[in-house]
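Section 3.1: Structural characterization of target chains.
Under the original work plan, the team committed to producing a structural model for every single-chain target entering the pipeline before any wet-lab resources were allocated. The record below documents one such target. The sequence was received from the expression subgroup and is listed exactly as submitted; it comprises 122 residues.
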Amino acid sequence: MPPLRAIACIDDDSSVLEAMGYFLRSAGYSAFAFASAEDFLNFSDISALYCLITDVKLGGISGMQLLRQLAASGLAVPAIVITAFDDEALRAQSVAAGAIGFLRKPVHEGELLGLLQTCGER
């Protein structure tokens, strides 16, 4: 079982994963990095996660498809969507897919911390 406040980060850009992992650990979270949604789906303790942070555009299953798949499977993990493409339609799709937040890259650390606090209130 992952430690309390464990966060899974999914992004196909290794530099984003590295930076996100460093930031999350410095903020007191545990971070698990995945280069694809498919890799993440092989993680054994999805339901024990504090939060999931996923990019929208991934090779293979997209971040949106992943959120829909998790919801259909009954795995309610608070999710934050990050993307380099900020548009209202994408934001609305994220919320409709179950995301608690939508952030544009580069991610502002204060906004991310605020959303992560929201995860703990659920």
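Residues 6-120 form a domain with the Rossmann fold fold (CATH 3.40.50.2300).
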